[in-house]
Design goal:
The protein has about 325 residues and is α/β, with parallel strands linked by helices. The protein contains ten helices and ten strands. Helix 4 links the parallel strand 4 and strand 5. The protein is globular and about 60 Å long.
Length: about 325
């Protein structure tokens, strides 16, 4: 299926950041947790645009389509401290588009973290009470803007659309071009786009790899359904009808959610400290610390063998440390 990769270059995209992102060994962390498989980290936290993170890769494709359609405004949603909202705002202003954010939660008296960056970039932030209110508010905002003569483009949560997921099809190819062929990839997941992209990329490159998403919020079956839906949409984009893409094994672990989205756990706190103190890698409690906590637990439990290579895909979010 490698020939289908040529379709990626035929779709509009914009340049956000510089690639490839580094791949580093985590030898000190490995030693600190008692040995086990070779541990690597793919540093998408180091993407050189908008404080990085996995959303930047997705937005290269999504903003490309928005511009191709003549949009002048980008509408998206997220929590008050949403990494996605911050990255989307950055991508919008970089390309001359007006950013409109629908944020669920209470405005901070003194904005910090992602909320501070959103305000600094001049986002038009509209607040709603809960997560379930975001989609209707985005629809209403789009209708209002059209009535005013503007051309809005709505970006769903996480940019986790079949188009956005192409960012991680491309990223998987980037990893292979760096000479890295891991046995296992572990990453934080929520809306499912990153995992769908990695699974599609592995299929396209015929890479035999176990890809495990660690949920930050929703039950495993709900996240897996979102991944499956995105994969279905990607079949059309990449002309993969009748291929094995729909047979991809979707692995989602929801045992690290703890008391809820953004709430630290004992395991995520330990993972954050171990990564910082051994390899100067910074992970946030909402996403990446929980995923790294799962990886550390699996190494200690002997889930992986010493001759395997396990790659932690750092999807960013470090701004949340300062929220």
């Amino acid at each position: 299926m490698v020939n289908n990769l040529s379709l990626l270059s035929s779709l509009p995209r914009v340049s956000l950041g510089h690639y490839p992102t580094p791949v580093e060994r985590l030898d000190r962390l490995r030693s600190a947790i008692g040995g086990g498989p070779t541990l690597l980290v793919k540093r998408d936290d180091a993407i050189s645009f908008g404080f990085g993170g996995n959303k930047v890769r997705k937005l290269s494709w999504v903003i490309g389509e928005a511009l191709a359609q003549g949009a002048d405004t980008i509408i998206t949603c997220g929590g008050v401290q949403s990494n996605h909202a911050r990255a989307t705002t950055a991508a919008a202003v970089k390309h001359g588009l007006r950013p409109v954010l629908i944020a669920n939660g209470t405005p901070q008296a003194a904005p910090s973290g992602n909320a501070l960056l959103d305000a600094l970039m001049g986002a038009d932030i509209q607040y709603v009470a809960g997560r379930e209110d975001r989609a209707p508010a985005m629809t209403a905002a789009a209708e209002r803007l059209r009535s005013e003569g503007r051309k809005p483009y709505v970006v769903p949560l996480g940019a986790s659309t079949p188009l956005g997921a192409l960012g991680y099809v491309d990223a998987l190819g980037e990893l292979l071009a760096q000479g890295v062929r891991p046995d296992v990839i572990v990453h934080a997941c929520s809306s499912g786009g990153t995992q769908a992209g990695l699974l599609a990329g592995a299929a396209l490159h015929d890479l035999k790899v176990e890809i495990i998403g660690v949920s930050a919020d929703d039950p495993a079956d709900q996240v897996a359904a979102a991944v499956r839906s995105t994969l279905t949409g990607m079949e059309s984009l990449l002309q993969l009808k009748g291929t094995s893409l729909q047979k991809a094994r979707i692995q989602v672990d929801d045992t690290q959610v703890g008391e809820g989205y953004g709430v630290p756990t004992l395991r995520s706190r330990e993972a954050q400290q171990l990564a910082a103190q051994n390899d100067a890698i910074f992970v946030d409690h909402t996403y990446t610390a929980k995923a790294l906590g799962a990886l550390i637990a699996w190494v200690r439990e002997g889930r992986f063998t010493e001759d395997q290579t396990v790659l932690f895909w750092h999807t960013g979010g470090q701004v949340g440390i300062f929220a």
